[in-house]
Amino acid sequence: MRDAKLAELMRRAVTLAAQGRYGASPNPMVGAIVLDREGNVVGEGAHLRCGGPHAEVIALGQAGAAAAGGTLVVTLEPCVHQGRTPPCTEAILAAGISRVVVGVRDPNAQVDGRGVETLRTGGVEVEEGVEAEACRAATHRFFHWIETGSPFVTLKMATTLDGKLAARGGRSRWITSEASRREGYALREEHDAVLVGVGTVIADDPRLLRHLGLNPNPHLRRVVLDSHLRTAAAATVLAHAPEDVVVFTLEGSEAQQRREIEGTGATVVQVGDDGHGRCDLRQVLRWLGKHEVSSLLVEGGGEVHWSFLKEGLAQRLHAFVAPLVLGGREAVSAVGGDGFASPQEGVRLEFLEVRRLAEDLVVVAEVRHV
Ligand SMILES: NC(=O)c1ccc[n+]([C@@H]2O[C@H](COP(=O)([O-])OP(=O)(O)OC[C@H]3O[C@@H](n4cnc5c(N)ncnc54)[C@H](OP(=O)(O)O)[C@@H]3O)[C@@H](O)[C@H]2O)c1
């Protein structure tokens, strides 16, 4: 088969993989296509839901007997281990596939080349690295989590054109349009957890729930950074599904307040000091990574955004910018903290996307780690 045709099929498989963006986590998003001996597409699949069938198995199921002697095109190396479902390599060998085209190897220690090896040992011809960059990009959160042990971090902010998160006095409802807020809620459906600082809990008393029903898993882990446990046990965030809430605090924080928060059903986790009397974000991220949080949406406020950016712990920014000016020396900025002393010291970004949404602008940027 011509290289151009294979590349085109792999790009189609990448599109299929994206169907899993709400439900696959903490598994990777994967897309697969099966071709018969003549090169006709006879099956397509995506991994839609963690615990559900893998993309390869869906595509092979569609293909049925037509898979024998055919080709499987798959964005990520097939799994070789018994996880929540049986190994895909077994299904591929049983279907009599003669050639497998893989986008990228699975960096997961349980796979990492073994899927490819098992197929080759089973007599299957394996070609690797087709549209590798696109396949990796489609799975970037999973790769980051597996490679670092920490979730992929996206900062989400709704700001005025003059960079304010709230008006003087702290009111922020609403800065952006309903369409932007809806897209912000869709981001929650795509992430395993959301995080805010205690400043936001006190100012906005948010629920931080999923509202759109796009993710088959209703449990969104909700995280509060609260060094001295200023979160009231009566806070709204603790009133809904408290078992999904984790409050990070400093070691030695007040035992009585800890018991009160734990009494609601939430988890309190004590971490070390970051050197400024606040929760150490590296420890927070490691804890979340260990608890299957592969992606984290940080929803403010300005102090928390600053800490993530200054520490080099955010990978992406998703900003909704409203055609509104609020001004105010005391009004919270999108990024607070002490600030940098010169533009050269600042955090460099690369714009990935800039578009209009209703009357707002949406800017998606990647943090350049130099
Ligand atoms: N427009 C938007 O998108 C948006 C989104 C969210 C919030 N907001 C607005 O933002 C305002 C709140 O922002 P804010 O900057 O005042 O507070 P914040 O960022 O929500 O919370 C900051 C607080 O979190 C605690 N914290 C614990 N560990 C931390 C760490 N490693 N780094 C930073 N903070 C840590 C600190 O308090 P302790 O030292 O007591 O722990 C800190 O003062 C509100 O007015 C809210 O309405 C707007």
Question: How are the elements arranged and paired?
Answer:
Layout: H1 3-17, E1 31-35, E2 41-46, H2 55-63, E3 71-76, H3 88-94, E4 99-104, H4 114-121, E5 125-128, H5 132-138, H6 140-148, E6 152-160, H7 178-190, E7 193-197, H8 198-204, E8 221-225, H9 236-239, E9 245-250, H10 255-263, E10 267-271, H11 281-290, E11 295-298, H12 302-310, E12 316-322, E13 349-357, E14 360-367
Parallel strand pairs: 3-4, 4-5, 6-11, 6-12, 7-8, 7-11, 8-9, 9-10
Antiparallel strand pairs: 1-2, 1-3, 12-14, 13-14
NADP nicotinamide-adenine-dinucleotide phosphate binds at residues 157-158, 165-166, 170, 172, 175, 196-200, 203-204, 225-228, 230, 274, 278-279, 281, 299-304, 307, 332, 336.
Plain-language structure description:
It is a single chain. The protein is an alpha/beta fold and 370 residues long. It is 29% helix and 23% strand. The chain is built from 12 helices and 14 strands. The strands form 2 sheets. The chain has a 9-stranded mixed beta sheet, with helices on both faces. Strand 8 (221-225), helix 9 and strand 9 form a beta-alpha-beta unit. The longest helix has 15 residues, at 3-17. Bound molecules: NADP nicotinamide-adenine-dinucleotide phosphate (NAP).
Ligand roster: NADP nicotinamide-adenine-dinucleotide phosphate
Low-confidence sequence ranges: none
- Given helix and strand content, the structural type is alpha/beta
- Could you state the order of secondary-structure elements as H and E? HEEHEHEHEHHEHEHEHEHEHEHEEE
Rg, nearest Å: 23 Å
Q: Main sheet, how many strands, which sense, barrel?
A: 9 strands, mixed
Number of strands: 14
Termini Cα gap: 40 Å
In what range is the share of β-strand residues?
15-25%
Number of alpha- plus pi-helical segments: 12
The shape, in one word, is elongated
Q: Strands of the largest sheet, in order across it? A: 10-9-8-7-11-6-12-14-13
Helix content: 25-40%
Task: Estimate the mean pLDDT confidence.
Answer: 96
